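Pair request: fold both.
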Amino acid sequence: MKVIHIILLGMLVLSSGCSLKEYRLFQGDEVSDEPTVVSDKEYAKEVAFEYKIQPNDRITIEVFNQVGSSQQITSIVDTSSAGQVRQGEDSGFLVTSNGTVNLPLLGTTKLEGLTEDQAAKHLIKEYKVYLRNPYAVVKIKNQKIIVIGEVNKPGVIPITNGTMNLIEVLARSGDMTDWAMRTHIVILRGDLRKPETRVVDLTHLSSLSFSSLYLRDKDIVYVQPRSAKGMDLFTKEVTPPFTLIATLLAPFVLIDSLNNN
């Protein structure tokens, strides 16, 4: 029976190690164990950051013109009336791979590399060739943050006010679960083949003084689980088969015990 005990113990140790190692995502040398330090200069840039229109973005455009002495406002371009707006992610004009959109009077117009305000001013300037008093409004529709891991409502969070911070994203995700590792929240940014990684510790105010909570479009926020979560899952996985094995071996253990006595 000692051999059986050794085999069972070995299975327990090996299974435990594999479960804890494989449960967490984005493991590797690129993800530091320490919170990421953001310099004051870099932080100032993040505070002032404005997203610029890129190919495959969805944008809404409205252009109005003031005509006549009655100050009447006439709609020249309106995404909703033009039939361009649909519900969800298909709303607005799709920016082509060349960074352009096709507009009335102007035709193909390049907007890539411009912020919302810059694009609106650019359209006003272009439409002044055809209109006396044009006014334009441009909104980027598809900015988003992806939240996964130990939050109550993981998913895609739309950026509705031009910028968003980590606290707001976690609040919109229903806050972190009891299993969340609050000292090691990972943020992935940029090219997914070689992303920039950041680690944020939310447990101490002092650690926030050298971090940055500002997020950008398409950032991935991963709230890691604590080690106890992996152990809990491991226990739930191995308890049924080990219970079955113990039940099957119980008569033999009893017989062996009686023989020894």
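--- second member of the pair ---
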Amino acid sequence: MHGSQGATALVGMPGFVVGAHELIDGEWWLYVETTADVVGCAECGTRAIGHGRSRTAVRDLAISGRPTVLVWAKRRWRCPDGDCAVTTWSERCEQIAPRAALTERARKRLAERVNVEERSIASAAAEFGVGWHTANAAVAEHTDPVIEDPARFDGVTAIGVDEKRFLNATPTARTKFTTQVVDLDRHRVLDVIEGRSRAVLGDWLAARGKEWCAQIRLATLDPAAGYRAALEEHLPNAVRAVDHFHAIKLANKAIDDARRRVQQATLGHRGHKGDPLYRARRVLLCGDERLTEERFEWMLGLLETGDPDGEVRAAWVAKELLRDVYAATSPDHARRRLIVFFHFAADAEVVEVTRLARTIDRWREEILAYHSTRGASNGRVENVHMLTEKIRRNSHGFTNHTNYRRRILGRLGVSWTTVPTRRIRGRQPRSIA
């Protein structure tokens, strides 16, 4: 142990001084105490007298990369007035809460590790030498007031809605889903709602209030009837739009369904490596403009061999006609191309194409709104799904929706104020990777 002739002030914690320090198993142990010498009784105001000390060890911020423990020689005081109801008490400090394992600044830094640096709670807890529940409590303390602040919803005019798997199915429980609402303009998650239904989304919108709902001008969604009904009911001024990705996904599913049905009908088994339709499964999902002439002829040859009635080819043509709707130059142009798609679907008389046309017809206005909204897309919601899945995997999954919601909103729903690290050198060399 190394002492100093004069106590040294503890940086960032006014009122504390370091009397000695010691290196134990690679960790700094700092022995600290407060500078208060005169303390009055809170009840009667009489000058208190010392009543001994007790040592309290708490984790603090690392020093030069080394874990640090503060050993606080906490004073106990006694009121000398025999008529006073207060007898003894221990001194307190805002930076170290009673029975705490971490200083307040360490709790804040731990929360930043999770919310800003995308660390898991288990990883942050291991870094600070505390248990998972202690670390989770620190994250909750610094995150919950921010994500529950109503001001976080101010200025929102465009939202995207989609479902996201929260908990995979187990032998005793079904797969659980959440509904994620995203601010499309600022690319932030507004909320993560447990469940996926009209009622779930409708209750959330109703809780925001009529004034907030009236300011929403655009709502993007996937073709989910429950979500559409909730948006129709609560967002009177919003244009609802289904983007290119979700519509063409339906068309690709129709191709796969037709291909599998024809495969079973012609060969009596699911696709094998050398089967024509199985070999063409990926190229059928590619856009026509992305195929070279040789690749296109190769695909047609496989269809002529494995699709004698042209049903899979009809599904492929239907997909391309639907893509033409999204490639139109104006809403009126898109309507004309959509009529061409419906005429083809009616003449094709293929089960999967007919089913696709019926679905597109139910979502006709939302699909055409893609053009009136200048290409409104749910892409930012899908991007949030990717980032959400990254957090879920990094944490090895969640079983508690409250913790899951806090982690997602803390990372993707709040713009935290951080000090940027500025470069102090000039240009990067050209050879840098």
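Observation on the second member. The chain has four domains: 1-100, 101-148, 150-242+377-412, 244-372.
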